[in-house]
Amino acid sequence: MFQGKRFLGIIPARKGSKRLPNKNLLTLKDRPLISWTIESALHSNNLDSVILSSDSEKILSLGENYGIEFPLIRPDYLSEDDSVREDVIRHAINFLKEEDCQNYDYFVYLQPTSPLRTSLHIDAAIEFTIDSNAKSVFSVCEIDHPIEWSSYISENKSMESFNVENLIKQSQEFKKRFRLNGAIYICNIENFLQCSSMFFGKDSYAFEMDKFSSIDIDDKYDFMIAESFMENIKNDC
Predict the structure, then answer these.
(1) Which H or E element spans position 9?
(2) Which of 105, 108, 162, 182 could cysteine-pair with 216, CB 3.0–4.6 Å?
(3) Cα separation, 174 vs 48, whole angstroms
């Protein structure tokens, strides 16, 4: 328990993936991708419990071998490509109400596609949540290029909507902007259940992470980048 508040870690890890098949079990630096997030969660000083939610018996068995206390079989309707994240979270919360007599104040949603997010990031984000008195906190990283340098491409491949004045500016002349990096989502459980969604609003704050730790594996290209980075770091969690 951290400063009187209890935090529940939720790791979602379905077996299906179109862009990178079976990615949660792909070997990344001599061990499955999912194991990096499991170990980070279990090494956190501020998480009170961790649920691994999956439709894969193999993933759940792996989680139990690493020490996951609450492996949760996810039903098929929550394991499709178009399944809603909030429904997966609600399913995990409801499961724990029946399995554990403890009450939790916040959940910490940890996607296994962020293997460079460590327990240090998790603990720092939780501490930031308490210090900010936040209803929700989302990890972000700085975008690589100014959005003023981007535009839509029409069907005939023309790009006529650029502001020429922006194109001749140096990148440092623009205000820094950030994007969600998918590594950490923290939300007050009571507020989440009342709103039936993740909370972005007045009491929602950004937890900044560096670009290196923000790699989010969505396809083979991302996986290759993560492999390259992993070769240059220690086996830290």
Answers:
(1) strand 7-12
(2) 182
(3) 41
